[in-house]
Predict the 3D structure of the following.
Amino acid sequence: MSERKATDIFSEWALNGKDFGMQDHHSNAVDAMLETLTSSRSSSFSFVDAGCGNGWVVRKMSSNPQCTISFGIDGAEEMIRKAKMIDPKGNYIHSDLLTWVPHEAFDIVHSMEVFYYFKDPEELIKHIMDNWLKPYGQMIMGVDHYHENIKSHSWPTDLNTYMKLLSIDDWVELFKDCGLEEVKAFQANAKYDFPGTLIVHGIKGRGS
Ligand SMILES: C[S@@+](CC[C@H](N)C(=O)[O-])C[C@H]1O[C@@H](n2cnc3c(N)ncnc32)[C@H](O)[C@@H]1O
């Protein structure tokens, strides 16, 4: 059978309710990501979730008093339909991440379990740097499919979709090559059989 598009798979997940299981599964790592973004921040910020699924992180962030606007973008039509059903006044957009360009750039770009679905993640990160992020904006990415998480190596076969397998160092270098500064990586929510979600965080310098 030919490889499936990730967005088609996740539209099915929205229809059969698997999105809520995914939300539970990702929530500890996302809490660590949001803590990294907001713990030392005193100024207000705009926020966008790249590959937002049913929009749960968009809603979580919009309840933060410092957050002025919270957007979610996803290429799975049914995920966006569900996000709008749960939160009709929310900002949810159905689009491929590589083609979407906001009217106004954001202070924070967040993305959980999305970047490895791209054959060329560098193209996506550069697109986000050029079009989505303000100077001094923060970008944070979480992934569970990475080289050091051996159990994740079978996922492309299990799901019959493309996934890019990179190591921790590869992701850090990619962020730096795309112009992100102060790049830091850590693993959150590790358990006895899981090395943790790889989280990579960086800042867009004024010149990038
Ligand atoms: C593993 S899910 C994670 C969803 C959400 N971040 C969460 O934690 O619940 C990956 C998401 O990325 C989206 N996605 C994958 N490729 C995409 C693309 N090219 N453009 C937009 N969204 C994409 C999928 O539709 C899916 O909702």
Q: What stands out?
A: The chain has one domain: 6-204.
